[in-house]
C-alpha cells in the first residue's frame, strides 16, 4: 500500500489509484487522449496542442533529409559508422553488434530477454525507490526474478546467495534522482551481465 491506501501494482512498481487502475484502463485512456489530440489538431492546427509532460519526442528533420529516413537508405549509409563509433565509445570487438531501438523501453525489454536467464535473479540498482516499469515487465517476460536495491551491501548479499544473470544500473531515475558514482565504478568491473540505462540511453 502507498500512503493513500492504494495497492502497489508489482508490474509497474507504483500504486495506480482509482483512475488508471490497470494496464488496460491506462491503455484505453491513452487511446482516448490520442483521439482528443487528433480532433483538436484537425480543427485548429498543430500549434493548438501543447506538450507539458517534459518528454518531447518531436522528430526534427529537414525536408532535404527525408530520403535518408527510408528503411534501407538510412541504415545502408550509417550502420557501419554507427557500430564503429558505438564500440569505440563503449568498448567491444568484432564479435559484438549494435542494435538501434526507437525507445529506451524497447531496448530495456530486449536486453532482459537476451541476457536474463530463466529462473535466475536480475538485480536492479536504482536511486530512490523503484525501477522503470519496463524493467519489471522485461524481467517477467524472461521468466526471471527482479530484485531492486540501492546499496552495495544489498547487492553483494544477493550475489553471494543467488544465481544472478544480469545487473541493471539506472544512473538517473525518472524522478531525476542520481545514483552514487561509487556504485557505478565498482560494479562496472563485475563479470555478471551489466546493462545501464538512463534518460533514454541504454548501453
Report how far the terminal alpha carbons are from each other.
33 Å
What is the average of the pLDDT values?
Answer: 80
Shape: globular
**Structural Rg:** 20 Å
Structural class: alpha/beta
Helix share, percent: 25-40%
Q: What is the CATH level 1 assignment of the largest domain? A: Alpha Beta
Write the layout of secondary structure elements.
Layout lengths: L7 E2 L4 E2 L7 H22 L28 H18 L13 H12 L5 E5 L7 H9 L3 E5 L2 H10 L2 E7 L10 H7 L5 E6 L2 E2 L1
Parallel strand pairs: 3-4, 3-5, 5-6
Antiparallel strand pairs: 1-2, 6-7
Helix pairs in contact: 3-4
Characterization of the model:
The chain is α/β, with parallel strands linked by helices and 203 residues long. The protein has 3 domains: 8-48; 55-100, no CATH class; 102-202, Aspartate Aminotransferase, domain 2 (3-Layer(aba) Sandwich), CATH 3.40.640.10. Helices cover 38% and strands 14% of the residues. It is built from 6 helices and 7 strands, in the order ββαααβαβαβαββ. The protein has a 5-stranded mixed sheet with strand order 4-3-5-6-7, sandwiched between helices. It has a two-stranded antiparallel ribbon with strand order 1-2. Helix 6 links the parallel strand 5 and strand 6 (193-198). The longest helix has 22 residues, at 23-44. It is globular and about 60 Å long. The two termini are 33 Å apart.
Amino acid at each position: 500500500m502507498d500512503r493513500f491506501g492504494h495497492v502497489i501494482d508489482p508490474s509497474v512498481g507504483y500504486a495506480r489509484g482509482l483512475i488508471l487502475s490497470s494496464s488496460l484502463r491506462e491503455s484505453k485512456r491513452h487511446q482516448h487522449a490520442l483521439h482528443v489530440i487528433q480532433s483538436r489538431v484537425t480543427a485548429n492546427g498543430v500549434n493548438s496542442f501543447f506538450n507539458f509532460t517534459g518528454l518531447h519526442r518531436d522528430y526534427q528533420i529537414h525536408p532535404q533529409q527525408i530520403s535518408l529516413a527510408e528503411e534501407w537508405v538510412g541504415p545502408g549509409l550509417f550502420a557501419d559508422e554507427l557500430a564503429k563509433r558505438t564500440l569505440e565509445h563503449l568498448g567491444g570487438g568484432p564479435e559484438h553488434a549494435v542494435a538501434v531501438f526507437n525507445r529506451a523501453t524497447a531496448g530495456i525489454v530486449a536486453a532482459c530477454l537476451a541476457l536474463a536467464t530463466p529462473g535466475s535473479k536480475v538485480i536492479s540498482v536504482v536511486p530512490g525507490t523503484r525501477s522503470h516499469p519496463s524493467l519489471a515487465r522485461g524481467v517477467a517476460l524472461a521468466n526471471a526474478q527482479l530484485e531492486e536495491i540501492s546499496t552495495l551491501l544489498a547487492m553483494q548479499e544477493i550475489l553471494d546467495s543467488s544465481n544472478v544473470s544480469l545487473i541493471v544500473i539506472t544512473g538517473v531515475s525518472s524522478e531525476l534522482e542520481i545514483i552514487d558514482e561509487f556504485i557505478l565504478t565498482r560494479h562496472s568491473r563485475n563479470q555478471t551481465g551489466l546493462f545501464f540505462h538512463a534518460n533514454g540511453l541504454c548501453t
